[in-house]
Amino acid sequence: MSDVYSLNDPARRSEGFAAAKSALSRSGLVVVPTDTVYGVAADAFDPAGVRRLLRAKGRGRAKPAPVLIGSPDTLRALATNLTPEVRELAKSFWPGGLTLICRQQPSLHWDLGDNRATVAIRMPDHEDMLALLADNGPLAVSSANLTGQPPATTVADAQDQLGNAIDVYLDAGPTPGATASTIVDATGDTLTVVREGVVSLEQLREHVADIGLAGSD
Fold first, then answer.
1. Structure letter (DSSP) for residue 45
2. 32, 137, 140, 209: which one has the fewest Cβ atoms less than 10 Å from its Cβ?
3. pLDDT tens-digit profile of 118-155?
4. What is the CATH number of domain 3-80+91-177?
5. How much is the pLDDT for 114?
6. What is the pLDDT of residues 10-26, one digit of tens each?
7. Angle between the 10-25 and 127-136 helix axes, to the nearest 10 degrees?
8. Which pTM was predicted?
9. What are the residue ranges spanned by the domains of the chain?
C-alpha cells in the first residue's frame, strides 16, 4: 500500500520527506512534484531502483531515465565536455524547464538505461523538489505516467496510472501545467533541440545563437 503525504501541511511534509528518504534508500520509488509535471523518482546511483522506475512506467532501457539535480555545480560532477554554450544555457535557464543531454563523466557507476555514456540533466524550479534533492542527492526522475499516456499534473493522476508500484506519493497540489521541459542535445558538434517544451527555441537563441531544431533542414 502506498503512502501519500501533503507537502502543504508542515507536519506531513516532514514525515513525507523522511518516508521518501527511507524509500529511496531501499530502491523504492517516490512520486514528486516539479515545476512542470509530477515525476517518479529513484536514487540515480541505485540500479535496482532505476530498473523499478522503468518497469513501473512500462518503459524499456532504450529510453534512459533523466537525472534531476539540486545545484548547478552538480552538472560538472556528472557531465563532461561542457562547452561555454552549454554552461551559458545552464546559467540562464536553471533552475527551470531545460534539460541538457551531456556526455557523462566516465567515472560514474550507475545504470540509467542504454544511455550510450550520455545523461539528461535538469535542475527544477520547485522549492520542495530542490529540498528533496538537497537531502538525497541526484535522482533519476521520469514523468509520473505510463509510457504513452498523458503526464500527471496531480497526485491523483499519478495514482490512477502507477498505483501501488509507488512507495511514497508527495502531494504539493496541481503542478503549473502539462508542458514538459525542453530538451537540448549537447553531445554533438552543435546544440540541437530534440523536444521543445516550456522553454522556446527563440528563448534559447537569445543566449546561444547557434542552436538547431531536430528534424529541420
1. T
2. 209
3. 999 999 999 999 999 999 999 999 999 999 999 999 99
4. 3.90.870.10
5. 85
6. 999 999 999 999 999 99
7. 40
8. 0.95
9. 3-80+91-177
